[in-house]
């Protein structure tokens, strides 16, 4: 399984970005997909999660600003990021899993929020 993340870049505070994660197989076949991020010198943290049933959950730090969604026809999961803050600066990773022990990671995409 391959996960290809894209969409990162440099954006000003208050701006928006949309990240994409394209999978090499049907995203509906995963038990769940998620976005994580890792800021310099920090541990990787969960940002948003989407279950196979369509349920979503978010880290408190991004609630109301980020939205995870999917397009099964494109085998792609998205992370819409609005009202970006400098503290959102990080490398963002896409993750998919079949079970707690069968996990797939995409390569990261860098998001930099700076004026």
Q: What is the element layout, followed by pairings?
A:
Layout: E1 3-6, E2 9-11, E3 17-23, E4 32-38, E5 45-51, E6 56-58, E7 66-71, E8 76-81, E9 90-99, E10 102-105, E11 109-113
Parallel strand pairs: 2-11
Antiparallel strand pairs: 1-3, 3-8, 4-5, 4-9, 5-6, 7-8, 9-10, 9-11
Mean model confidence by pLDDT: 96
Q: Indicate the structural class.
A: mainly beta
- Give the low-pLDDT segments: none
Q: DSSP strand (E) fraction? A: over 45%
Let me know the number of strands. Answer: 11
The N- and C-terminal alpha carbons lie at a distance of 37 Å
Task: Kindly state the percentage of residues in helix.
Answer: under 10%
Radius of gyration computed on alpha carbons:
13 Å
- Biggest pleated sheet: 7 strands, mixed
- Strand-and-helix sequence, N→C? EEEEEEEEEEE
Bulk shape: globular
The total count of helices amounts to 0
What report would you give on this structure?
It is a single chain. The chain is 0% helix and 54% strand. It has 115 residues and is mainly β. Strands 2, 4, 5, 6, 9, 10 and 11 form a seven-stranded mixed sheet that branches. Strands 1-3-8-7 form a four-stranded antiparallel sheet, with no helix packed on it. A hairpin with a 2-residue loop joins strand 9 and strand 10.
């Amino acid at each position: 399984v391959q996960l290809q993340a894209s969409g990162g870049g440099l954006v000003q505070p208050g701006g928006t970005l949309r990240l994409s994660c394209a999978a090499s197989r049907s995203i509906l076949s995963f038990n769940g997909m998620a976005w994580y991020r890792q800021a310099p010198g920090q541990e990787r943290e969960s940002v948003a999660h989407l279950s196979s049933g369509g349920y979503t959950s978010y880290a408190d730090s991004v609630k109301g600003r980020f939205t995870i969604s999917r397009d099964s026809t494109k085998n792609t999961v998205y992370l819409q990021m609005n009202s970006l803050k400098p503290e959102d600066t990080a490398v963002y990773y896409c993750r998919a899993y079949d079970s707690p022990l069968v996990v797939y990671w995409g390569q990261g995409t860098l998001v930099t929020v700076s004026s």
